[in-house]
Design brief:
The protein has a domain of 33 residues. Helix content is 37%, strand content 0%. The protein contains one helix and no strands.
Length: 67
């Protein structure tokens, strides 16, 4: 007769296979790296919002033109 789930021993816990560096004790010690383009994070966020607004406007124009 097959053993039930309750009869099985729990699987052994293993350590992660990749190295995870410890977090700094204070959040302010962790430097904020600049984005790879546009220089600052607010510029990146602004570019994303502008892109999405243009994409929505383009979809609206296509919808009105081909309706």
């Amino acid at each position: 007769m097959p053993e039930s789930v309750e009869d099985r021993a729990p699987a052994p816990r293993s350590t992660p296979s990749c190295y995870t560096p410890p977090m700094p004790s204070n959040r302010r010690e962790m430097p904020d790296e600049p984005p790879p383009f546009l220089g600052t994070w607010p510029r990146v966020y602004t570019a994303v919002v502008v892109y999405l607004a243009l994409l929505i406007a383009l979809c609206y124009v296509f919808t009105r033109a081909f309706a």
